[in-house]
Amino acid sequence: MKRNLLALALCLFLFSMAEAQSSQFRTGDAFKGPVRSARIERAKIFQENGENKEGPRVLVVAISYAPDWSWMENVGYRPDGSVNQKIVTTYNTNGDQTSISKFTGDGKLSLKIVYVYKDGRQVEENRFDGDGTLQQKRVTVWADQGKGINEIAYYDGQGALIKREVNTRDAQKSVWTTYNAEGARMEEAVHYLNYGGPKKTEITRYNRDGTVAGTFVSQADASVNQIEKSYYNQSGTPQRKTYEKREYDSRGNLSKLTEYAWDEQAGKYQAVAVSYYTINYSDTK
Length: 285
Prior knowledge:
By secondary structure, this protein is mainly beta. 8% of the residues lie in helices and 60% in strands. It is built from one helix and 19 strands. The chain has an 18-stranded antiparallel β-barrel. Mean pLDDT is 92; it is low at 5-20.
């Protein structure tokens, strides 16, 4: 009897530890911690008598979680309030994604993604369409002892190579270079590893002949409260600039995000929209 009670106690302890882990972090989830539900509402911003005015708030996304955080449901809405799509993500006890199912507004399955893990690391992603036909397979090659990813290869449903993403890194930066099936460079993304400091990413896209097609630069402050994104054409001329101002709650989750667009005529950023995040946690009433 005592042995059975000890076994039961151990099982309950392990379950509570697993639940605690998945309640704090979930791969691919925009929110962290013991979130029960969340709503994102967005309002457009317009100018009136030289001042910013907010339009009506419109529900964009409603998110809910299983009691044990084994799944998350994300429902996206159109401006008229009708459902645009529903995404259901499942997790294992480590908080890793095990599957993603996407449904249309009328409830039809349009995409299913299944993840495969080995030694606690994701090694494969399989994408199926609504009728279960394999559309794409992604294979991840890890460095020795799991110290980062060396390469990610994408294959179509018949097993033909689509593209490869190869990583090289040093103490200052991590570089991801994308090659097509013929080995031509398509894109190069440089992430500067300024841990604890300002963040910067530069992405350069290439034409088939190897010439530059365009460049994207993202810069953020150390706390990721302010993010500036700039888009340049093949000659380096700015095409578009955006700016985000983010506010966070005490858990580190977004509570407000204000979007700005560069106004060339005014020579400054103008607010264009604001999103509000309402989050309910399991440990608060």
